[in-house]
Amino acid sequence: MENRKTAVVTGGSRGIGRAICVRLAKMGMNIIFNYNSGEEAAQETVALCRDHGVDAYAVHADVSDSAACAGFVAEALKLSGGRMEVLVNNAGITRDGLIMRMSDEDFEKVIDVNLKGCFYMSREAARIMMKQRYGKIINISSVVGVMGNAGQTNYAASKAGVIGLTKSLAKELASRKINVNAIAPGMIETDMTSVLSAAVKEKMTEAIPFKAAGKAEDIANAVAFLASEESCYITGQVLCVDGGMVI
Ligand code: NAP
């Protein structure tokens, strides 16, 4: 690999994760991301990143599995020659339902992927970044983690947990010049929101001051800022990228 920064991104095969990989590649970073089930989509992301002249690799790893996260980071370090300047914890899932009908499995699965995955990956990254005395950790939370949402107790708990993790880790790692921040997207057009009915989407859009859903690139642009030196004095913050939903 050339002398470029390396960004490790979780869930880069599609949606917001893909847009983040491509945006950081455009900034000149080498990209190593993981995916869970979308091998073909992951290879498309690799090609889109390489179009920007950087190295890009996709690794299969389930972020809800601690050992798989350790293995993914070990593989990433081999590919990058030991470098990892940026970590973006983006992989996430929903299993929506009202609490009275929510199974233990649906609650636990969402916590396992969204919150524990963020913890496993951040712990691996912290070990490397502390030695480097440099790093940027960017966690993708959600406006739902800030304001709650009926039918998403599991998801809201996981995303509020990500915010608590972000603030605590920012305090732990500040002395080593490591920035830890979260982004809270509002309603963004991806596969995750494509399953919502037209009526639900319309109701949600009506509640957005900008009266429109956001694009994956809107989140990627905010990640690019937090991954850049222009945000070097910002840590422990939650940046809502939501067309004004959380005001
Ligand atoms: P998406 O289109 O459903 O994509 C999810 C990505 O996460 C895919 O690349 C998927 O990989 C990966 N992933 C899922 N489970 C995984 C696991 N166990 N291990 C590794 N990777 C896994 O979702 P999105 O809309 O882009 O959302 C990205 C992030 O933004 C999530 O954290 C989500 O909660 C957050 N967010 C989204 C919105 C929104 O409106 N879309 C709003 C707020 C927050 P495979 O395809 O390979 O399985």
Write a brief caption for the model:
With 247 residues, this protein is of the alpha/beta class. Helix content is 48%, strand content 15%. The structure holds NADP nicotinamide-adenine-dinucleotide phosphate (NAP).
Tell me the radius of gyration. 17 Å
The shape, in one word, is globular
Count of domain modules: 1
Order of helices and strands: EHEHEHEHEHHEHHHE
Question: What is the beta-strand fraction?
Answer: 5-15%
According to CATH, the homologous superfamily is NAD(P)-binding Rossmann-like Domain
* Total of DSSP H or I helical runs spanning 4+ residues: 9
Name of the top-level CATH class:
Alpha Beta
Description:
- The chain contains nine helices and seven strands; from the N terminus they run βαβαβαβαβααβαααβ.
- The longest helix has 29 residues, at 104-132.
- It has a single domain (6-185, 217-241), classed as NAD(P)-binding Rossmann-like Domain (Rossmann fold, 3-Layer(aba) Sandwich).
- Helix 1 runs parallel beside helix 2 (39-50) and helix 4 (104-132) packs parallel to helix 6 (153-173).
- It has helices spanning 15-26, 39-50, 66-80, 104-132, 143-147, 153-173, 191-194, 198-206, 216-227, and strands at residues 6-9, 30-35, 56-60, 86-89, 135-140, 178-185, 238-241.
- It has 247 residues and is an alpha/beta fold.
- Strand 4 (86-89), helix 4 (104-132) and strand 5 form a beta-alpha-beta unit.
- The chain has a seven-stranded parallel beta sheet, with helices on both faces.
- Bound molecules: NADP nicotinamide-adenine-dinucleotide phosphate.
- NADP nicotinamide-adenine-dinucleotide phosphate (NAP) is lined by residues 10-11, 13-17, 34-38, 62-64, 90-93, 113, 140, 142, 185, 187-188, 190-193.
